[in-house]
Amino acid sequence: MFCETFLDSFAVLRTRDTDELHDWLNRNFAVRKLELRGATEPFDCTVNHCALPSIALTYARYGGRIGAEIAHNDFYLQGFPLSGEGEVQWNEHVVPVRPDLGGIAGGPGSHGRFTYSGDFSNLVLRITPAALVQRLAILLDRPVDPPLKLAGPPKPTNVASYGRLVKFLAGEIEQHQAQLPDMVLSEIEDAVIVNFLFANRHNYSSLLEGTPRAAAPWQVRRAVDYIEQHWDEALTIERLTEITETSARSLFLLFKKTYDTSPMVYLSQVRLRHAREMLCRPAPGASVTKVGFMCGFSNMGNFAMKYYGAFGEKPSETLRSHLK
């Protein structure tokens, strides 16, 4: 059966030794116990792993029926099954896991037991608590007290949508590797962390889903001025709320009322405008890919589609018509 793989350029483990796999999983995921359930079956494991400042992505194909136990971890994680099936007991919740059902999320200090079929593979997201709590405080516009606590399995529809975002990030990292600008990685990473809070149930879900108080118009103007002046830098929710002195949800609400769009879409429009200026006045050695990266677009297909929608021609056509 065909199974999609991720992060092949970030291979860390190719082994038939369960002790070697256990050692790596223990160091990276606090896996205290690992056992092969089918002693007579072949075991051939593949692990790819990429770490960013606040998150890490791991692709694993275990190549054998295994059982594992996690205890005393100090991070948040979420798994996205790609093939096979299994069962996860996370604290008091026991849920089946397979591609059509999604996985399960866990937090620091939790206890988990996992059993996977021989053809099981998954993509695992790991988030540092400091980064997650910081984003939550920004969204709430208040300190996170009591501590963030996950509350049961997420809705399959939420996990499916979130899984597509995480897979997109893994695909971009694999395709471009070291070519991705820091601001692109920072913004994608920020989106992954924030969406974790909306995709999963926790003790602050009701506050995130409520109606926020509106921000003052001057705060929206300040956000626009900042975007116009810093379009070529990483723009995160944290920075926007710092300079506008309001919560992210309040700012996004009034931004939508004022411009019928979000700050991030507005940023994309500004970057498209600058991209067109660069393509109309190309520097020596200019290319569509270089300009796209310089303007914060990591996916050239997406860049071309947005550019065509904004200006009615492909970016390659703009560049070609202005090359001397």
From TrEMBL:
Keyword Transcription belongs to the record: yes
TM annotation in the entry: none
A Pfam family hit: HTH_18
Ranges of residues in domain HTH araC/xylS-type: 221-321
Record SMART domains: HTH_ARAC
Database matches in InterPro entries: AraC-bd_2 (IPR035418), AraC_XylS_family_regulators (IPR050204), Homeodomain-like_sf (IPR009057), HTH_AraC (IPR018060)
Keywords: DNA-binding, Transcription, Transcription regulation
Domain of life: Bacteria
PANTHER family: ARAC SUBFAMILY, HTH-TYPE TRANSCRIPTIONAL ACTIVATOR RHAS-RELATED
Protein name: AraC family transcriptional regulator
Taxonomic lineage from the root: Bacteria, Pseudomonadati, Pseudomonadota, Gammaproteobacteria, Lysobacterales
